[in-house]
Design brief:
Chain B: Its main location: membrane. The complex is a heterodimer. Chain A is mainly α. In chain A, about 70% of the residues lie in helices and about 0% in strands. The N terminus of chain A is likely disordered. The longest helix of chain B has 30 residues. The N terminus and C terminus of chain B are likely disordered. Chain B has 15 helices and no strands. The chains are: A mainly alpha, B mainly alpha. Chains A and B meet through α1, α2, α5, α6 and α7 of A and α2, α5, α6, α7 and α8 of B.
């Protein structure tokens, strides 16, 4: 949810922040004391939000110094010893557990980009060609719903359908067939995660594409129809180009998120399949740091991950500009 | 740009131009003028959508049915059934009349209510405070907000901050760290900026202060967007479990999601002592588990129909401007 909403709001808000002072409601610049007197209510209204941001974002950001410290919970951040770049050795010298987490992360990201990313586009195209508005809306209501469920509920749903005592295996057992070992099977874990993500979020993700679809000028379709274009050629030459902006935006954000896959989802199911098959970078940070007490090392890994993610977004955004797309924001 | 009510009742309604709607739909085309699918394609689309819908509905049907079934029926079915053998609400009675699940439910309700109200208040105040470009410190504050999107502090630094502030093992640790989402503030701000300036000017001429304008004019005009943003915050609080796992070591403070993790996902058995006193016989475990899931889903189902038509508003308000 958050990711999708990022791009829409960002794309609108950032240019404004940097350039457009033409918006209605602009307050002319005057002397400082006068401006303070005039704007003090507005300033006061920002204070609670600012306090939260400064405490739990910027001050917390500064807490990343423990990546260069030997942090011990009974000491404080300030009194723990500096250790230079020692904590980064898990990365530079390739700790096997860390490398395993990186590998799992990349495999999951790759598979999910290929399978999960296009699914809502296809679903939106299907929904868009439903003739009856009533049916279309009913289907949408049902398909949006899983997005609002907690991962705990989603995992429970999958267990009750696919698990050892679940719907499918009970059916197979009653009919004398061999049961399927799906939940808790390390070999199928990636497939399980992917199908859970698709079940939960494909419907919801169609919202953006449907909005983009309804924004396509209908005269384009009429013109191509007059020229004798078939439905498929219309999809190829009108619909997909109309979705290009949204698709590129989402791909950029996806790239920035490529090192974080399904943290909550995996934490819930890790015990059943074991660490080797399920550890990703985010769970490594949690398991190694909070659970395993290697605070400094885990922070170093999280920090490097965050820096790479930010660089990926900035780079992809630059690339989008080079190709003449709007991207997520304009500097 | 200047419409007061950017809330389109439904984005899925055809966005045809006036001429088109007067002319009516041409035969063989969809509302947007695209060629309609032919018979075979239509069948295929129908089948795919039916399968998708069934994939969502069938598990829900099963969860409800299982929660209402007796143990004999469930033993026969193998633990999960798509149709109940009656309407036995023993599972609901026993988890809602006291014990761990009731307590967790109250925690979840409390955190969600307080959190959502606070989040909405702080976000909308900040959004309004930032909605007049050129006001004092407008730009720096906006940048502080926007830069928070670029880089997240990370799990461990955030944990240490919560610890430093003394919120560990307090319900506030579930609320304060994620009190505002920068996206939501930006969406609200974009919405507030869309309100025509003439309204503010006339209110100001009538002697209204900024605070009055906010509470009497802006908030009432923004009910729809506040409802959606409120829903997003509420769903976030209701569904979250990891921050509780991280910050609350005292298990008696755990919210419903974490209790479900213990008793549904990890299959811990609910004994008579964990439940309310009202039942004579312990309802079957699967029924208890599924009843918990229904209780977790129920509030979402309740608000869902009212807010559904506004989803796209909440998602796209920022974009409509651009």
């Amino acid at each position: 949810m958050v990711v999708e909403r990022t791009l829409v709001s960002k794309s609108a808000a950032l240019p404004e922040a940097s350039s457009g002072e033409t918006v209605a409601g602009i307050r002319p610049r005057k002397k400082l004391t006068h401006r303070f007197g005039r704007d003090k209510t507005l300033l006061l209204m920002c204070v609670p939000g600012l306090a939260v941001l400064i405490t739990f974002h910027y001050a917390a950001l500064a807490g990343n110094v423990i990546a260069w410290k030997d942090y011990k919970p009974y000491l404080s951040i300030a009194t723990s010893d500096w250790v230079g770049w020692d904590n980064f050795k898990v990365i530079t010298e390739g700790d096997p557990a860390f490398l395993g987490a990186v590998r799992n992360t990349l495999v999951l990201t790759l598979i999910q980009s290929v399978l999960v990313f296009p699914a809502p586009i296809i679903l939106a195209l299907l929904l868009n060609s439903v003739m009856s508005l009533r049916i279309k809306r009913a289907v949408q209501s049902v398909l949006y719903l899983p997005h609002f469920l907690s991962w705990v509920v989603v995992v429970a749903v999958f267990q009750s359908i696919l698990g050892g005592g679940g719907l499918i295996n009970s059916f197979l057992r009653q009919h004398g067939a061999t049961t399927l070992d799906i939940i808790g099977n390390p070999d199928l874990f990636i497939a399980l995660l992917t199908s859970q993500v698709m079940w939960k979020d494909t419907g919801w993700a169609t919202i953006l594409f449907l909005a983009a679809l309804s924004g396509i000028d209908s005269s384009l379709y009429e013109a191509t129809a007059v020229d004798g274009a078939s439905r498929w050629r219309q999809i190829w030459h009108v619909t997909l180009p109309g979705l290009r902006g949204v698709i590129i935006l989402l791909l950029i954000l996806r790239l920035g998120d490529s090192l974080s896959v399904g943290f909550e989802q995996i934490i819930l199911q890790q015990r059943a399949v074991g660490i080797d098959a399920s550890e990703v970078i985010d769970t490594y940070v949690f398991n190694h740091g909070v659970v395993g007490n290697s605070w400094g090392e885990a922070t170093a890994v999280g920090l490097v991950k965050g820096v790479i993610g930010t660089l990926l977004v900035l780079g992809a955004n630059k690339l989008a500009h080079v190709f003449g797309e709007q991207g997520v924001y304009k500097a | 740009m200047s419409n007061v009510t950017p809330v389109r009742p439904d984005v899925n309604a055809p966005t045809t131009s006036t001429t088109r709607s007067l002319r009516g739909r041409r035969r063989g085309t969809l509302e947007n003028g695209q060629q309609a699918p032919n018979g075979g394609e239509r069948l295929l689309i129908g089948v795919v959508l039916a399968v998708c819908t069934a994939a969502v509905m069938i598990p829900f049907l099963g969860i409800i049915s299982t929660s209402l079934s007796t143990s004999e029926h469930l033993n026969q079915a193998g633990g999960f059934t798509l149709w109940p053998d009656g309407f036995h609400i023993g599972a609901y009675v026993s988890i809602l009349t006291g014990g761990v699940v009731t307590r967790a439910l109250l925690v979840s309700i409390g955190v969600t209510t307080v959190g959502t109200l606070l989040s909405l208040a702080v976000s909308s105040m900040m959004a309004f405070g930032l909605s007049r470009p050129g006001s004092l410190l407008h730009k720096p504050i906006l940048l502080v907000l926007l830069f928070s999107l670029l880089f997240s502090p990370g799990l461990i630094p955030l944990y240490l901050t919560v610890k430093q502030v003394g919120l560990l093992n307090s319900y506030w640790s579930l609320i304060l760290p994620g009190l505002i989402s920068a996206f939501n503030v930006i969406v609200l701000r974009a919405f507030f900026m869309n309100i025509p300036n003439e309204l503010f000017e006339s209110a100001r001429l009538d002697g209204a202060s900024d605070w009055h304008i906010f509470t009497r004019l802006v908030l009432p005009l923004s009910k729809a967007v506040l409802a959606v943003i409120g829903l997003f915050y509420a769903v976030g609080y209701w569904n979250s479990f990891f921050n509780a796992l991280l910050y609350l070591s005292d298990q008696s403070k755990w919210p419903l999601t974490l209790v479900m993790r213990t008793y549904v996902l990890d299959n811990a058995q609910l004994s008579q002592g964990d439940l309310g006193a009202a039942v004579d016989a312990l309802p079957p475990q699967p029924a208890l588990q599924m009843a918990m899931l229904i209780i977790a889903i129920f509030p979402i189902l309740c608000v869902y129909p009212f807010l559904q038509k506004h989803f796209t508003t909440g998602m796209l308000t920022g974009a409509v401007k651009g």
